[in-house]
Design goal:
Largest sheet: 3 strands, parallel
CATH topology: Rossmann fold
Number of domains: 1
CATH architecture: 3-Layer(aba) Sandwich
Radius of gyration: 14 Å
Helix content: 55-70%
CATH class: Alpha Beta
CATH superfamily: 5'-nuclease
Strand content: 5-15%
Number of strands: 3
Amino acid sequence: MIIVDTSVWIEFFRNNNYYINIIEKLIEERKIYAIECIFGELLQGSRSEREINIITQYWVNLPKVQEEGIWILAGNISYKNKLFSKGVGLIDLAILSAARENKLKIWTLDKKFGKVLSSQEKFEI
């Protein structure tokens, strides 16, 4: 079970066949969980109503991550590990908090974010 980070979804929505094949298979197997902040980022970057509709349909149909308390956990992780000064933002840490709380892995292409994930937290192909 995984959370697909914004960076990976962007490749999927750009019709990158590598990501399309993997994500479609994971969706069929019900292994991808959605989190609001990622879909919010995707909607923010949308360029048309068509893109908004496509992203919204994925949001509606994917199982959701339990998100209660993740922002406080994210702030604590950032503080304890001095991650703000290392370029790792609160959204990434909210994703990490949600993954930890829900026992999910994270698939990201973001190098800074990837560096803070343990090998048990990373989803790798």
